[in-house]
Amino acid sequence: MFTNKEEFKENFLKKLEMMCGKSFGESTKRDHYFTLGNMVREYVSTNWINTNERYRTAREKQVYYLSIEFLLGRLLHHNLLNLGLVDVVKKGLEDLGIDLYELEEIEPDAGLGNGGLGRLAACFMDSLASLNFPGHGCGIRYKHGLFEQKIVDGYQVELPEQWLRHGHVWEVRRADLAIEVPFWGNVETKMENGKLVFRHEHTEKITAVPYDLPIAGFQTETVNTLRLWNAEPSPYPIHQDILTYKRETESVSEFLYPDDTHDRGKILRLKQQYFLVSASIRSIIRSFRKQVGDLYSLSQHIAIHINDTHPVLAIPELMRVLLDEEDMSWNDAWEITINTISYTNHTTLSEALEKWPVRIFQPLLPRIYMIVEEINERFCRLLWDQYPGDWQHIERMAIIAHHEIKMAHLALVGSYSVNGVAALHTEILKIREMNNFYQIFPQKFNNKTNGITHRRWLLKANPLLAKLITEGIGDKWIREPERLCMLAQFKEDFSFLEQLSRVKQHNKRRLADRITMQTGMSINTESIFDIQVKRLHAYKRQLLNILHVMYLYNRLKEDSTFQMHPRTFIFGAKASPGYYYAKKIIKLIHTVADKVNKDVRTNERLKVVFLENYRVSLAEEIFPSADISEQISTASKEASGTGNMKFMMNGAITVGTLDGANIEMKEKAGADNIFIFGLPAEQVLNYDQNGGYHSMEYYYHDKRIRQVMDQLTNGFFPDSDNEFEPIFDSLLIENDQYFVLRDFDSYSAIQAQAGKVYENQNQWRKMSLMNIAGSGYFSSDRTIKEYAKDIWNINPGHY
Ligand code: 26V
């Protein structure tokens, strides 16, 4: 292909003419992006073919990671970096008068996910390939990723996202590998040769066409595959209006998370889940048959991992294939299934645990329902032996109860490994939320603390910091991120700390420029950049943050002796379209911003910014420029968090509760290098169980709280009428489920302390350094090695 700049330029110009049918003089930036993307994809194809060949022949155990979300973001720079091409390409393009950064900005984010769960899957793909593990991803090729957020008058408006509008250069359509997925119909039960057989008939078929993305590891020859399934009409439609059929079929891979407040939306979501699972399982079995053959040995060669419960139908689908297509006995099929499938739980919040009404499930997936019923019956029999006569206990643990199928229970029963995503979360699963399952299957439970790929989140997102680190400790940390701990040697090194601060300043400038470009606001880069970016949810408590901003504003207005280092509070968050309360909080943030930013008496010291349309590519600019990272969820509610790790790795200091992975971050950075506040998880869980918290008392006894609460409804915000009454009511009338008022005092105290420490720049920089030094543990390379060894039993290939 090309090994130096001159070859690159020559190839680039040739390719441009071929692909775009234009001369260089006529071509646009998009043509350049498109050309470069195709060149890079071709560049990886030799290694891609070789890697697939290795998997076909080497008989090494492989893992398939099934996920309803893959939040990949942009891939151009990531691929250039992993292939070691950044310099050659950058310089070659420069000679042609093209800025690589400008081309990168043209690429739309592949935003096939919501938040942490989907981004984790993407980080895992990068780590699997970079560590040479035989690992494949399976997901859905949504036509529209997560909605694009616009803010109009302070309200969130959702627009359909259009990442495929200009085509996606990284994907390869594999129509030859399509699979038909059946829905609806009925199951005929017959005796054939003395054996009961089940035929799923009169079905409506949807064709799943794979689009494969190459996942190139970092400076290695391994190129793994992420297979995204596209829903298309089957060539043999049933007697139905063809246009309706086409539309309904394509809707299966049209949107990530269709609105499921109505049955139609629910059916569509369930269809998506089975579509992903059936196509993936059957394509896994198809290649396994070619490579190994003997399905009785499946679990020795293949591990199938389900990311949360969305792909849990992998369990009955694998059973179906083994029973109906391979003619196995129930016991053999079950043995194979539970030795093949492993499951990660990502939340303990009961409203997020999936349940499907039987009335929806059974008609859509009649054969799968029969299998789930049988799994349930056998499991209930086992429970009966353990707890004879205790119907209540059995009912609580059953997979099907009260006309609903509990997906987490199916996952717990049908897998050999169940893991939580941070130490505290796993303990809560074992001791509380899933304790009854832990009693029966203690050996299944294990913890795998989340991680993030340091290649995207440090090397790519923060090149100046990466360079400084390499100057300090050499470049081995890039392969072995735990070596970042060597940075601790510079904690008294004034000159190193000075350089660290210069890097931060540079990154803050870049973000400030973006804010100015988007909002017209001018931002003081000497102010503390205090940032909270994540999905909007009550338990994440963006509300606590903004109420505290209101308090600071009041204090600045009323107390002339009040001193504070200037701060810029920055928010970024999407609210789920049907989540009314979360949208109210977005409106509140904007209303406060409006008031505070206009006030010339305070706006030198206090500013509030909301960055529209938070997404992976924007996140890459945000994390490197933060001074303070807000990780303020109600303790026990955030399973892990991963944004917290991205901030830490970029030298921000956490203001956080003892929740999720914050606890482990505190251990790694040192207790002196993090600002911890608020109720611990045990007390929250205790209140949840036994009551005893009365938010009204905090309203009456703390006049700061009373003032900001009253300001929500007393006209303090002009023209806001009853806008914020639902927030007022949730905190006072509904007793503040997430303990916002309970933690207000300790939050404002720790924030004041953080502000004071910032004035001592030397101490601050030292703390920042110790965060970077402690962050190596949170590389997803460590996480993936643990999954590989403890759960999947797979080994890396050698290069
Ligand atoms: C989803 C929903 C949807 C309905 C309303 C309530 C609700 C609450 C939580 C969720 C989260 C579902 C699963 C999830 O995304 N969990 C996230 O997984 C991340 C990766 O493990 C982890 O870092 C986050 O803490 C966890 O929230």
TrEMBL record:
Its EC number is 2.4.1.1. One of its GO terms (biological process) is glycogen catabolic process. It catalyses: [(1->4)-alpha-D-glucosyl](n) + phosphate = [(1->4)-alpha-D-glucosyl](n-1) + alpha-D-glucose 1-phosphate. Signal peptide: none annotated. InterPro entries: Glycg_phsphrylas (IPR011833), Glyco_trans_35 (IPR000811), Pyridoxal_P_attach_site (IPR035090). The modification N6-(pyridoxal phosphate)lysine is found at K646. Its cofactor is pyridoxal 5'-phosphate. It holds the Pfam family Phosphorylase. It is an enzyme of class 2 (transferase). Gene3D superfamilies: Glycogen Phosphorylase B. GO terms for molecular function: glycogen phosphorylase activity; pyridoxal phosphate binding. GO terms for cellular component: cytoplasm. Keywords: Allosteric enzyme, Carbohydrate metabolism, Glycosyltransferase, Pyridoxal phosphate, Transferase. NCBIfam families: P_ylase. Phosphorylase is an important allosteric enzyme in carbohydrate metabolism. Enzymes from different sources differ in their regulatory mechanisms and in their natural substrates. However, all known phosphorylases share catalytic and structural properties. Belongs to the glycogen phosphorylase family. This is Alpha-1,4 glucan phosphorylase. It comes from Cytobacillus solani. The lineage of its organism: Bacteria, Bacillati, Bacillota, Bacilli, Bacillales.
